[in-house]
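$ run holo --ligand "magnesium ion" --emit tokens
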Amino acid sequence: MKGEFQAIEALFRKRVPFCHETTYLSNGDDASVHDIPAGFSLAISTDTAVEGVHWPSDMPLDVAAKRAVCAALSDLAAMGAKACWIWLSVVARDQRALQDMSDGVVEVCQQYQLELAGGDTVSAAVNMLNVTVGGLLPQGKALSRTKALVGDDIWLLGDVGLSAQGLEQWLNGDSAGDCITFFQHIQPQLEQGEALLNMGVLCCMDISDGLLQDASHLAAASQVGLWIEQEKLKRLKCYEKTSLSKMLAGGEDYALLCTAPVLMRRQLLQLQAQRIGSCHVGNAVKLMHQGQEVKLEIQGYDHFA
Ligand code: ADP
Ligand code: MG
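-- output --
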């Protein structure tokens, strides 16, 4: 491959020919142009992943790129949106790295039928990806972290603590095992997010920086107190493979955290949601054990702390 433009063509544009039905001008122009069908709203989110920060430098780059795209898609899942497009800015140390990252991106686009609607390709001394994702929502409907109500149950869709466990194992030199697979292969809960929206759930977010930290964002946004029950966390399947502290603060889980009225319990159980607590008057998160608050010092991830 010669230069930047041949690389873009060969590694990205040719390999993801899929074009969403609402796209008027796709990849190849200075901007992509899309119609928004009547009755729908557009959901957009962006995420950045940097080698050495978001993934360990010894992780294969195709895996790292897949993780980056799937982490971005998790934000659409949290809104209840149907994922349609991605725009990819990729920074690569060399052509080998670019090729490897393109392999991961192409795989996720194929898996979720996503249009690669545009991007930017840059050579620099670090490998990183910025992924912008776009999706469609029924107009006037979106899950939001602002909509929890006192009396709601708190639910988890997906596992927590396995990714942090997998990372720890990877850093200790292991290369295989359930938790390492979980850490490497993020599963954005897209179908679950859409199902929540369709069943009438209002309040949801995805957990990327640790259950407690993200729950505190939801509590503040909704102005409700979230009481999470330690006993319920210990009954989750993932507790067999990790520790309570990693479940509470490990991060990179990409599970969905939602709240819903008690009347919706049966529907949520059908979605394999796991009930972990309830919403109260207040605006903070408490970990509860037999009716008493458990004092906590653990925190989630903060890039600037
Ligand atoms: P411009 O100079 O207008 O920013 P570029 O030369 O960076 O355009 O890119 C040419 C075309 O290729 C644009 O349509 C852009 O969206 C697309 N593109 C560039 N890099 C990527 C990439 N990594 N993945 C997908 N599309 C890309
Ligand atoms: Mg450019």
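-- notes --
The first strand starts at residue 23 and ends at 25.
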